[in-house]
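Appendix B. Chain record.
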Amino acid sequence: MSQQLDGQTVVQAINDVATQSSELILIVQSVNITNLLAVVPEIVKGFQDIIHAVETETVELGGSISVPSPNITHSRRDLQYRQSSSSPQPFNDEALEFEICETFRAFVVIHQQLLSLVIGSNGLLSTTPVTRPLGQVLSTLESVIDSLAFGIIDLVPACAKGATNDKNSLDQTLRRAVDTYNP
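Structure tokens predicted for this chain:
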């Protein structure tokens, strides 16, 4: 038996994660040589908070995520999005679907800005012993974002192609960030 989600709930969930990403942008922008050791753990925690929020939203979209221990380096292959038997039905309201897709697109843009800042900060961040935890958290983030994106794409057949393109674009940025901190 499947459930039906409220479209505005989906929009709000995506916006909530985008807000967390925007807040983390401010922290990443504040990193400098004098506050490096104090701020980098905040960055890692910010990404962990985003991961938790994305996991919660993915489950609410009817998927399930199995996440390995955060202390173990893993890849997207280790995490799988699986629709459950109670997965919500796709929306059949094109206006709502396009609103969800536009919201997801805005999330992608914000998240790419965040990841680009993290990638650009590599020189400064790589001088700290916290590079490994940052790489690990980015690997997990890559996987849970994929799961969320698949859940969203499943709900929006009218704009699934555009949402898939946005997901693929974000995947490329995530992969660069993961590769930067997991040499």
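Further analysis of this model is presented in Appendix C.
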